[in-house]
Design goal:
Blueprint lengths: L1 H10 L1 H10 L40 H6 L6 E5 L2 E4 H20 L16 H25 L6 H18 L2 H10 L4 H22 L10 H10 L3 E9 L10 H20 L3 H12 L16 E3 L6 H8 L6 E7 L2 E8 L3 H30 L2 E3 L1 H5 L2 H28 L6 H4 L1
Length: about 425
């Protein structure tokens, strides 16, 4: 459904990130960890979801009440004593069901709910998955509450803008509200999710693992960091022996590439201004990645460490001193001529910042895993009464009825003719 896809795209970008960062045993970010698709399963429902149920109350803003007969505000679980609503849990249950349904079975209608995943049935997997995602978000809120972390005025304004952007992306307020109903999410629930995933998580990480400003590092500090971490900076001229798809060229084409490399190397070795000539020939001849306008993607070369390049390239770079030229270096990509250079300060600063970001993200991920392991998650009878298959079939039927009602209203508005214009009456 178009509206549903719009809200999923606008609202679930943070959800996917949460799944990846949670570090839980099973999340929608990696459904293949426990669920394997059945190649013989296909979607062959005997009747449409809408035909299995009576008419739902499409007017109520409480979708959970319309589907299951109790309010979306009903508590279904607690995380370290903090209440989690049915709406929150059911949102993640629908999300997990559709993710697994599409990626593992081709369509949610084809889900084999009782299929053994190796650690329980698909139904059990979805229950645990949705519970863990709801718990993950609540752990963020709980930890922020303990540390008095709240949104700043600037973040509140940014959050308002994100919601406004979601409305615009959906096609306006009416379409936005329809899309929310189709995924059983209220606007308050969406705001809460945005707040946790887009702001509170980052604030929590910044408080626990504060980042150092890369701009404060001196050239000497960056040079020392590069040396300590085996970083090298290299430009190269590449003559490829594979096409853009990675397929090997013919023997004649490979020989021609090798001859070009040898001729180019001879020019460089004979030059009194080798480095300037290297830049000229690199920009003219190299078959490394280029932008659409033909310019090289890495005109300043590459700053890299151990294991980041193919082994032959790395070994050749290590053997060079600064400002030294290599011979012909053959790799699976083709023939290279390398020029090793001193580490560029600004490239080192960018690499340092990227590495710090990765390290801090790992630390925060580890901390969240610890908190999730330690969290006391308790569910109640209402939670136990929710069957994923029944819920998703009801949600699908509800969506069909919503879409039919919306289409009728749209068609009616499009075909309605005014009785007469004021001018005609006059």
């Amino acid at each position: 459904m178009k509206a549903t896809k719009k809200i999923l795209g606008a609202a679930l970008s943070g959800a996917l990130l949460i799944g990846a960062m949670a570090g839980c045993a099973q999340t929608p970010a990696d459904p293949t960890s426990s669920v394997s698709p059945s190649p013989t399963v296909s979607a062959t429902p005997s009747e449409s979801p809408a035909a299995q149920f009576g008419d739902f109350d499409l007017e109520t803003p409480d979708v959970t009440m319309a589907l299951l007969g109790f309010p979306g505000t009903t508590t279904v679980m607690t995380v370290d004593g903090a209440e989690v609503s049915a709406e929150e849990y059911l949102y993640w249950l629908g999300y997990a069901t559709e993710y697994v349904g599409y990626y593992q079975f081709g369509d949610p209608a084809a889900i084999d709910w009782e299929m053994d995943t190796g650690s329980g049935t698909v139904t059990e997997y979805l229950i645990n998955n949705a519970r863990d995602l709801a718990a993950f978000n609540q752990v963020i809120r709980n930890q922020c509450a303990e540390r008095n972390i709240t949104l700043t005025d600037e973040e509140k304004a940014e959050l308002d803008q994100q919601l406004a952007d979601a409305v615009e992306t959906s096609g306006g307020q009416d379409a936005f509200e329809l899309a929310l109903k189709e995924v059983n999410r209220t606007e308050d629930g969406l705001r809460s999710m945005y707040e946790a995933s887009n702001f509170l998580y980052a604030s929590l990480q910044n408080q626990l693992f504060p980042a150092k400003d890369a701009a404060s590092l001196t050239a000497e500090e960056l040079a020392q960091w590069a040396a300590d971490n085996g970083k090298m900076q290299v430009k190269h001229i590449l003559f490829k022996t594979v096409d853009d798809s990675g397929n090997a060229l013919s023997d004649e084409e490979k020989e021609a590439a090798k001859q070009k490399a040898e001729d180019t190397l001879a020019q460089l070795q004979a030059s009194d201004d080798m480095e300037n000539l290297f830049d000229q020939l690199m920009n003219e001849l190299s078959e490394d990645g280029r932008y659409s306008d033909g310019t090289l993607g890495a005109p300043d070369g590459y700053l890299f460490g151990e294991g980041e390049m193919v082994q032959e390239f790395e070994d050749a770079a290590k053997a060079l001193g600064e400002h030294e030229l290599s011979g012909i270096v053959e790799t699976s990509y083709g023939y290279h001529i390398l020029l090793r250079l001193p580490v560029d300060t600004e490239m080192a600063r960018e690499a340092w910042a990227s590495e710090q970001e990765a390290n801090l993200s790992t630390q925060m991920n580890d901390q969240m895993t610890t908190w999730m392991d330690e969290a006391v998650v308790e569910t109640n009878d209402t939670f136990a009464s929710i069957d994923p298959k029944d819920y998703y079939e009801r949600l699908s039927a509800y969506r069909e009825q919503l879409e039919a009602a919306n289409s009728t209203e749209t068609d009616g508005a499009a075909t309605a003719e005014p009785s007469a214009s004021p001018a005609a009456e006059g």
